[in-house]
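Help needed: design a sequence for this.
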């Protein structure tokens, strides 16, 4: 990411400020599937609403497999007014649980805990239906890997708050943030960014994101004009080269014709000279013959 040294200092100030303002929430979990459910909730709702939603789902359904096979309408009815985005949240959790079940034919990720971090990460990436946020959350909390979960709102917030270089890609932002602190403190950074994003005015964040997208679009259009101009210039240059080549060829043909004509004229002149030389010899021979007769 551009100007990483500058934004590294900005991030340090942000972390110092957030440390004094919020306490890092701890997740209650008995197994690795609990972590997946927490991640599915955190991706959609603010920190303060997550514990209530988790306990409501846990108390209503027999187990997480019961939640996996439930209808979206049932989840919506269970959560009621506790979650305005209950449909999206239900889809997010169910999709992740189904991805696990389809892959391993059971609702467990215990087998991944015995593997290396890279191998586990690669395997999770193959699960169709599990979001990148849930994968990174699992890798960070269950595997202790250098993975920072980032939702769309969190990405928009760090741009809005000036914590990263404007116009940076999401992959650049994520890579920059992950490199700034040791893995032991990465969960705290995640909590600070999410908490700040949850508290920020969503309308301000969305307005800033829209302006940034417009600026990017305008920037993309400008080079395209330059490319067209370059293409036109290139085409004109090609035509000039082609015209020069054609002129050169025409000159060569003209020169060749002239040379052929000169050669033909030279041959004609040579024949005439030869004829002149032959004529006197003939006259001399006639004179000698006449003298002999006398």
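Sure. Designed sequence:
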């Amino acid at each position: 990411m551009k100007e990483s040294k500058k934004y590294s200092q900005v991030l340090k100030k942000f972390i110092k400020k957030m440390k004094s303002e919020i306490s890092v929430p701890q997740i209650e979990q008995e197994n690795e599937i609990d972590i997946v459910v927490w991640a599915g909730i955190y991706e959609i709702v603010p920190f303060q609403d997550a514990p209530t939603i988790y306990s409501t789902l846990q108390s209503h359904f027999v187990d997480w497999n019961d939640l996996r096979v439930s209808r979206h309408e049932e989840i919506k009815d269970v959560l009621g007014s506790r979650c305005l985005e209950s449909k999206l949240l239900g889809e997010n959790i169910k999709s992740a649980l189904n991805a696990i079940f389809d892959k391993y034919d059971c609702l467990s990720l215990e087998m991944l805990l015995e593997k290396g971090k890279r191998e586990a990460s690669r395997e999770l990436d193959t699960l169709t239906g599990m979001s990148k946020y849930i994968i990174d959350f699992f890798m960070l909390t269950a595997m202790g890997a250098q993975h920072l979960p980032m939702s769309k709102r969190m990405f928009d917030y760090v741009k809005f708050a000036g914590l990263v270089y404007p116009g940076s890609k999401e992959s650049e932002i994520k890579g920059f943030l992950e490199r700034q602190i040791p893995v032991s403190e990465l969960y705290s950074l995640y909590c600070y960014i999410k908490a700040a994003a949850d508290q920020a005015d969503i309308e301000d964040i969305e307005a800033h994101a829209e302006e940034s997208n417009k600026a990017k679009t305008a920037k993309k259009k400008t080079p395209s004009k330059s490319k067209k101009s370059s293409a036109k210039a290139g085409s004109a240059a090609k035509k000039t080269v082609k015209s020069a080549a054609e002129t050169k060829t025409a000159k060569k043909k003209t020169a060749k014709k002239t040379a052929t004509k000169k050669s033909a004229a030279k041959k004609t002149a040579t024949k005439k000279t030869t004829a002149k030389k032959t004529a006197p010899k003939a006259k001399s021979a006639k004179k000698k013959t006449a003298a002999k007769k006398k």
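The chain is about 75% helix and 0% strand.
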